[in-house]
């Protein structure tokens, strides 16, 4: 599958919750769009550090189903020392056994010799 989404972090993303594209819900087991439930627990592996984090993808109960990573998200932000302007890349990849795993990668924009590059965010 590969990359589900990339997002440059806003203040809300770093302090409260990460808003994600609605189309991503179709890739989550027990999709919140197809059920009465409005929360799905996701185990997500940090691409750089190898740690597994638990994020909850929640949606509004009524109206537009704006999905967000809520519980667990701010802990990840703090652990990785993320800040406004950093970028996260969220992937879904095969696990080699017929299933799949979710992975997240944190990047920071750097200027090197007049060029902008995205580099891995160093561990805190």
TrEMBL record:
Gene Ontology molecular-function annotations: DNA binding
Pfam families linked to this entry: B3
UniProt KW keywords: DNA-binding, Nucleus, Transcription, Transcription regulation
SUPFAM superfamilies from the UniProt entry: DNA-binding pseudobarrel domain
InterPro entries (alphabetical): B3_DNA-bd, DNA-bd_pseudobarrel_sf
SMART domains: B3
Protein name as annotated: TF-B3 domain-containing protein
Annotated organism of origin: Tripterygium wilfordii (Thunder God vine)
């Amino acid at each position: 599958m590969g990359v589900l989404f990339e997002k440059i972090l806003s203040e809300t993303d770093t302090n409260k919750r990460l808003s994600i594209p609605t189309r991503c819900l179709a890739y989550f087991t027990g999709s919140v769009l197809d059920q009465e439930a409005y929360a799905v627990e996701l185990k997500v592996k940090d691409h750089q550090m190898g740690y597994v984090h638990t994020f909850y993808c929640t949606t509004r109960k009524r109206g537009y189903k704006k999905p967000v990573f809520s519980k667990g998200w701010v802990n990840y932000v703090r652990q990785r020392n993320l800040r406004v302007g950093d970028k996260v890349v969220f992937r879904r990849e095969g696990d080699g056994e017929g299933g799949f795993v979710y992975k997240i990668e944190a990047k920071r924009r750097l200027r090197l010799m007049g060029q902008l590059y995205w580099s891995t965010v160093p561990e805190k």
